[in-house]
Design goal:
The chain is an alpha/beta fold. The chain is built from 14 helices and 16 strands. Helix 8 crosses helix 14. The protein starts with 9 loop residues before the first strand and ends with a strand.
């Protein structure tokens, strides 16, 4: 394996996961490797085209964060803060003792505080402008995921939110990597957060045909790469990775989950919501990531695919992966288990890819019963597969034609 210069390698030293699979690394890994879906009927969505979702179970902001968080912060921010605290603790870092000016934050988000906006709009219609909360704007703005995380942990370096739709979390990790490689930061908290399971958002997704119509069978609704797939199950969640230069991580004796060797991004310039039919954009991003990593296509052992369970995405992405990587890598889509967390998906999946490298265990693609005959890939199904994994790829596609890919390697 002809890897790029080690001086520019970026290590993942901490992981934080708050997803429908659970709160924390252990709960997530156990559920994801079980191949059991987290989808349930969502009482808040009754009467909408999609009445099922994947929510984070047992999330109590007051208990997990404390203080004003339960009423002043929107849920997408709360999820991000909890995931970040987990990741920082997992990395063995202490925000009270680090040089905050050298710590950056890059988080992906797309829809911000959609629930706050809907709630306050109803207050406006019902009772007039005097009843609109003065906190509406900071509750609604997408940048507040990074802003409040920085406040919570005293990160005073560059902070920003990447908004490349469902590729946002992957874009965040790639952007954070560049902040480290440029010397602008010594530590970057990177990832994504999303919580937009609201009536208006879900009605919009339902009307555009993105959601599964298999409402009477929630557990089997999300079925990536399956011949009978018909749309995704919406979800919420957050995934945060602590990134450091590998040389710095080793110098302080940190445990390294995985190394981010390569990143690539490209744009379809084709359609607002549909992927370019031949997958040229995501292929460009993947080839750029492989080149950046100094890894050949034949060396890739595992792919955590975007795999949304939608008719267009899965066949486009599947054929692209087959064209670029062949049928050798063990492929999975964890959206079969936790649904589609939108802007958070890429970060959560990068964390799962790092855990796959660490454990040598590929999670199964939940609900894959009959693989689409047009997709020639080795997709893991049924049960997790024990195998040697040294190089993993994570791919993400988003509305607007955004594409991003990461190459991770074992330490």
């Amino acid at each position: 394996m002809a890897l790029g210069g080690s001086g520019s390698d970026v290590a993942i030293t901490g992981l934080g996961l708050v997803t429908p699979a659970g709160i924390g690394i252990r709960e997530n890994w156990d559920r994801i490797t079980s191949g059991i879906s987290c989808a349930t009927v969502d009482e808040t969505l009754r009467g909408l085209p999609g009445e099922i979702s994947c929510r984070v179970p047992g999330f109590d902001a007051d208990a997990l964060i404390g203080g004003f968080a339960a009423w002043q912060l929107e849920r997408f921010v709360q999820l991000a803060i909890v995931a970040t605290r987990q990741a920082v603790a997992d990395a063995g870092l202490d925000p009270h003792s680090w040089d905050g000016a050298r710590v950056g934050v890059v988080l992906g988000n797309s829809l911000g505080g959609a629930e706050a906006f809907e709630r306050q709009h109803q207050a406006l219609l019902k009772s007039g402008p005097t009843k609109v909360s003065p906190l509406l704007i900071p509750m609604y703005m997408v940048n507040m995921a990074a802003g409040y995380v920085a406040i919570d942990c005293g990160a005073k370096g560059p902070s920003l939110v990447t908004a490349t739709a469902c590729a946002s979390g992957t874009t965040a990790v790639g952007t954070a990597r560049e902040l480290l490689r440029s010397g602008a930061c010594d530590v970057v908290l990177a990832g994504g957060s999303e919580s937009a399971l609201t009536p208006v958002v879900l009605a919009g997704l339902g009307k555009m045909g993105a959601l599964s119509k298999r409402q009477d069978d929630p557990l089997a609704a999300s079925r990536p790469f399956d011949a009978a797939r018909d749309g995704f199950v919406p979800a919420e969640g957050a995934g945060v990775l602590v990134l450091e230069r590998a040389s710095d991580a080793r110098a302080r004796g940190a445990r390294i989950h995985a190394v981010v060797r390569g990143y690539g991004a490209a744009t379809d310039a084709h359609h607002a919501t549909a992927p370019e039919p031949e997958g040229r954009g995501i292929e460009q991003a993947l080839r750029a990531a492989l080149l950046d990593a100094g890894v050949s296509a034949t060396e890739v052992d595992h792919v955590n695919a975007h795999g949304t369970s939608t008719p267009l995405n899965d066949v486009t992405e599947g054929r692209m992966l087959s064209r670029v990587l062949g049928s050798r890598p063990a492929v999975t889509s964890t959206k079969g288990a936790i649904g589609h967390t939108l802007a958070a998906a890429g970060a959560i999946e990068a964390a799962y890819a790092a855990l796959t490298l660490q454990h040598g265990l590929v999670p199964p693609t939940a609900n894959l019963r009959e693989q689409d005959p047009g997709i020639d890939l080795d997709i893991v199904r049924g049960q997790a597969r024990r195998t040697r994994v040294e190089v993993a790829v994570s791919t993400s596609l988003g509305f607007g034609g955004h594409n991003a890919a990461l190459v991770l390697t074992a330490t």
